[in-house]
Write a structure and sequence with these properties.
Layout (H helix, E strand, L loop, with lengths): L4 E8 L9 E9 L2 E2 L2 E2 L2 E5 L9 E5 L3 E2 L7 E5 L9 E5 L4 E2 L5 E2 L1 E5 L11 E5 L3
Antiparallel strand pairs: 1-2, 2-3, 4-7, 5-6, 8-9, 10-11, 12-13
């Protein structure tokens, strides 16, 4: 018996992959019934270190709706003081809102970069 499945595949830089190259699969329909996925926007400013800060913005990777979940995220900071940094991570679990919907908390440390190598801390909440 064949069950039609549709979805999307997103490249993953998962360091635990044996081949060093992997993908995440997000199923959007199973046997003709839609499986809802969603994304969140995120943005903010890093900590002020080495005489400057950076801003960042992006969209999370898709995740299923209506079930406990987290989202992977990735972005680059703005180009300040002659360099930029990479941010990446996984959000915290969904935080329900009183009127429905949810958001996620995220935090981390940027990659090290700059003429005087340094990193920045960042944190925030995704959009709802």
């Amino acid at each position: 018996m064949e069950i039609p499945v549709t979805g999307l595949m997103i490249h993953s830089n998962d360091p635990t992959s044996d081949s060093g190259h992997s993908h995440d699969l997000y199923i959007t329909a199973w046997d003709g019934s839609p499986v809802s996925v969603h994304i969140h926007h995120f943005s903010g400013a890093t900590s002020f270190d080495a005489g400057h800060d950076h801003h960042y913005a992006g969209k999370t990777e898709p995740a299923p709706s209506g079930v406990p979940h987290t989202h992977k995220y990735f972005s680059f900071t703005t180009f300040n003081d002659g360099h930029k940094h990479e941010i990446r991570g996984v959000t915290g679990p969904a935080m329900p809102l009183p009127n429905g919907g949810h958001y996620h908390k995220f935090k981390g440390v940027t990659t090290i970069n700059g003429a005087h190598p340094h990193s920045h801390k960042y944190s925030g909440n995704t959009s709802t």
